[in-house]
Amino acid sequence: MTVRFSKIISLMQSTLRKNNLVRPTALKNLQTQEDGDPYKILIGTILSARTRDETTTQVIKMLFSEFKNPDELSRADLKDIKKLIQKIGFYNVKATRIKEVSKILVEKYNSKVPSNLEDLLTFPGVGRKTANCVLVYGFRKPAIPVDIHVHRISNRIGIVNTKKPEETEIDLQKTIDMRYWIGVNETFVTFGQNICLPIKPKCNLCHLTKICKYYGKNN
Ligand code: SF4
Q1: Mind listing the domains of the chain with CATH numbers?
Q2: 203 close to ligand 1 (CB < 6 Angstrom)
């Protein structure tokens, strides 16, 4: 990939602006509304997996209006948690997860979310994507959370050539200057939700056609 990454980001942003699609993700909304509270970002990220952003935002609001911190959520009745988050995909498993995670935070971390990847990865149900989201949206630390959008778009454009999200994260870290890491997830996810869709990407609206490997192959 010879095109500078700043150029790619700039073309994505201009595409979104031109098409009136500059919309914050659920995690960006949560970061703004909750002043980047790492605990709420952690729980919000666990809940957001395989769920539409609008639903995630709505459910997170209801959950935190009832249980405000790790202590309250760790002591909550599982049935009450399930009831509050039932609109979310896999809500049974996620209810158990967020209660467990809250309990560990209270017992082991004095209710403070750790700000390093290694500790975050020890929590049940917390993989690299979730941990990196907490670093980016909760602690404003440079990290690249790679979800399906980041993985798909990076490969389509040709920034990386990988099979698994974990490989994409490693290759993106090698390719992208660290000062850009913190914004990758937000831009790529918005772009993936609105332009570079999983099926039938809207290439006719996209400003990256001249540099996109996928577009070059298919047109
Ligand atoms: Fe843009 Fe299409 Fe390439 Fe996606 S696949 S980045 S929509 S040109």
Answers
A1: 2-21+143-218 (1.10.1670.10), 26-139 (1.10.340.30)
A2: yes
